[in-house]
Amino acid sequence: MAMSIWGKIGGAAAGLALGGPLGALIGAVAGHMMFDRGRSAPSPQQAQLAFTIGVIALAAKMAKADGVVTEEEVRAFRQVFDVPEDEAGNVARVFDLANRSVDGYQAYARQLAGLFANQPDILEDVVDGLFHVATADGAVHERELEYLQNVAAIFGFSEADFARISARHIRPDGEDPYVVLGLERSASDAEVKAAYRKLVAEHHPDRAISRGLPEEFVRIATDKLAKINGAYEAIQRERGR
Fold first, then answer.
1. Would you state the pLDDT for residue 39?
2. Which of 15, 78, 89, 191 is the most buried (most CB within 10 A)?
3. What are the CA-CA distances from residue 200 to residues 91, 161, 207 (Å)?
4. Which residues neighbour 173 within 8 Å (Cβ) at sequence distance 6 or greater?
5. What is the C-alpha separation between 95 and 80, in angstroms, rounded?
6. pLDDT (tens digit, 9 = 90+) per residue, 2-29?
7. How buried is 217 (Cβ within 10 angstroms: 0-12 exposed, 13-18 middle, 19+ buried)?
8. 8-17, 51-60, 78-87, 126-135: which has the minimum mean pLDDT?
9. What HEC string does the chain produce?
10. How high does pLDDT run on average in the chain?
């Protein structure tokens, strides 16, 4: 079973040294600064903590992209990630601290990119989570889209990768199923099947669970898989299969 994303924000995080701008945020919430102990790679607990705080911090910076953070945007975050009442205060504090931090969103994105450099699927989960927050009001606004593109670029995703990810959320090109699968319309049947199988393997909810991702991101993975399946089925229908 996947843990909830919120189990690490309060006192449970007190013994975890994370370091960097994300460590400074969680340290402020936990009541002390955290120092990097020089690990070559984060422990599973540190990784989940970084993931959790990184998503909150980047969502907060995205909310500020239009110049002001509204209560509606904070509520949207809480709704998307189903924040329990007993953790709402901690989440709000991280959200507020990230907004007021002198660190730009690039610093948070770079730290996450470094922590998960060999796990691009986790970084894609972060981008998907941010898209879920951005679309909570029914649309992704121009500044939000630019912000998401910049974060994806820091994570190492190409323009084609970003088009594939965003196609699952903002329905470009009339929700072109080929874009969702990262394909050209000229792709052969074999190429379509190979791309589909690769994406299913990469984004199946069972894999999210095995990677130790919080349960909220397992739900996002389930939604992602449904869109991948829908795109493949649309192509099959179009080709008379």
1. 45
2. 78
3. 32, 16, 10
4. 167, 179
5. 14
6. 445 555 555 444 445 567 788 777 666 6
7. buried
8. 8-17
9. CCCCHHHHCCHHHCCCCCCHHHHHHHHHHHCCCCCCCCCCCCCHHHHHHHHHHHHHHHHHHHHHHHCCCCHHHHHHHHHHCCCCHHHHHHHHHHHHHHHHCCCCHHHHHHHHHHHCCCCHHHHHHHHHHHHHHHHHHCCCCHHHHHHHHHHHHHCCCCHHHHHHHHHHHHCHHHCCHHHHCCCCCCCCHHHHHHHHHHHHHHHCHHHHHHCCCCHHHHHHHHHHHHHHHHHHHHHHHHCCC
10. 77
Single pTM value for the model: 0.73
pLDDT at 32: 42
**Residue in this structure with the two tokens 């594939």, named with its chain if needed:** 164
pLDDT of residue 121: 83
For residue 131, what are its two tokens? 């898209």
pLDDT over threshold 70, residue 180 = yes
And the tokens for 57? 């911090």
- Which among 85, 66, 63, 89 is positioned nearest to 74, based on CA atoms? 63
Say yes or no to pLDDT of 188 above 60. yes
Q: What would you report as the CA-atom Rg of the chain, rounded to the nearest whole angstrom?
A: 18
Both tokens of 184, joined, read 């050209």
